[in-house]
Amino acid sequence: MPDWTYHPLRGAAAAVLGLRRSRRTALRLLASVGARPAGARLIARGFGHRHPPELLAGEVAGVPVAVRLGISVPPSLAHDTIRALAPLGAGVVEVAPVSAADVQAVREAAAGRAIPVVVGACDPEVEAALKPHVDGFTNDDDPRIVRVSDPSVTAAATALEEPGTVVLARPQVLVAAGPGWFARVTEAATPTAPAPALRDVGRAPRRWPAWWWALLVGLGMTVAGLSAAAITLGPVLLWYDRNYLGMTLHELHAANHHLVHFLQHDRITMAGTMVAIGALYTGLAVGGIRRGWPWAREAFLLSGAIGFPTLFYFLAIGFVEPLHTAAALVLFPMFVMGVRRVPHRARWRLAPEGSEPERRRALVGQLLMILMGAGLFVGGAVISVVGLTDVFVPTDLTFLGADARTLEAVNPRLVPFIAHDRAGFGGALMSAAVAIVLLSMWGWRRGEAWVFWTLAAAAAAGFLPAVVVHGSIHYTDLIHLAPVYFGIILTGTGLLLARPYLCAKTPPGSSDS
Prior knowledge:
Layout (H helix, E strand, L loop, with lengths): L2 H15 L1 H16 L2 H10 L11 E3 L2 E3 L3 E5 L1 H10 L7 E4 L7 H8 L6 E4 L3 H7 L5 E3 L6 E4 L4 H8 L5 E4 L1 H7 L3 H9 L20 H24 L5 H7 L3 H7 L3 H31 L4 H14 L6 H4 L4 H18 L16 H33 L5 H7 L3 H7 L3 H29 L6 H24 L5 H25 L11
Parallel strand pairs: 3-4, 3-8, 4-5, 5-6, 7-8
Antiparallel strand pairs: 1-2
Helix pairs in contact: 1-2, 1-17, 2-3, 2-4, 4-5, 7-9, 10-13, 10-16, 13-14, 13-20, 13-21, 14-20, 17-20, 17-22, 21-22
């Protein structure tokens, strides 16, 4: 489990299972998933952990390791630890102390390992029995091995700055800090360079970096959303809308006095979601991709991979909107250039560690934001399905005072026209939700104020127009708006809890240039 579930939920787990049993259950759960190759990849990528820099590679007791960071555990924890911690960023597991009675347990624990296993100094007979089954042996007198009981990330990262030094955490470190401790230490020990400035971009498009293309996509989505809002608040229907329907705005109003307002409410909500996506992409580009965070590219890629294909909803609906199609055709090549794989260099600057209560509150906020994003994704999927099938939910028909058959009798193309807006909004909502979930999962670090402001701007752009337009047209059914109100509560609470952590001041020497 990641830190954002470990800390917020461990109190409840301890109350149900007992403190000791809840810890062992968490470790065994990670071990059962991490023991499988697919599960190990899921943990490594899902939790946002990445390969450490070559500078942190080295050896322990003559055994090469990808990162000079690991854990020292007793034989009773060895089996689950060896399977659980490799995907979390540990480079080695030390099992110590080991006696003759522990030989069989250590053999079984080391079988099929995906991480180097070394054993603490023991008598010659034990070493001889274990030599074919483990990678090496350590002793307590080795000055290059630092065993830590303090969960301080700064202290561990400072120790790793000394070439050849290996840092091994005691079990109580992970109990106190959470499973993300290895990744936090690795990031803190990673050498970084200043982030590129705007003046470094240059004028030749073929030389523009990926982050600049991603920024253009974000700005393009924002402009498209604002343009859609302006059209909705102005003429509502453009020439191609009128041509498709064969009706004017006045004729729609005459057919049903609530119909024009209903169209406006769908389109304003869609426009707000587009602006929210623009804010998310802009933040990921400038705050994430530009500064070398590998996960930012993946969040941008996965969100766009959900959003752009929704253009093809028209295959089920039959109505192709020219401006929507034109915007997608312009932005998609930029999106491709923004997600192209290029060697990344760490250009982030981490704020110093703060108080543990501050971090614990921020982790609760992180969990709330992830839950909110997951809820948005489910909501977007439901809206897409409804838009492609029934088109209306019961509260829509109550507001309109008519059913789908009545609207089809007015104009056979009216329901498909509304379905286009409804399904498109669902697709945009899913795209925004993916970006919110992944940014909240992977971007939560002390001093990363851009994460706070990106999520706050996206929330304002998404929620505020939805609330205002529903109120202005008097479509205020509580059941219909309950998900919006719940999302606002989750977002507001989550960001308030995390603000001191995310917006912590970074020392002048650690700021981007």
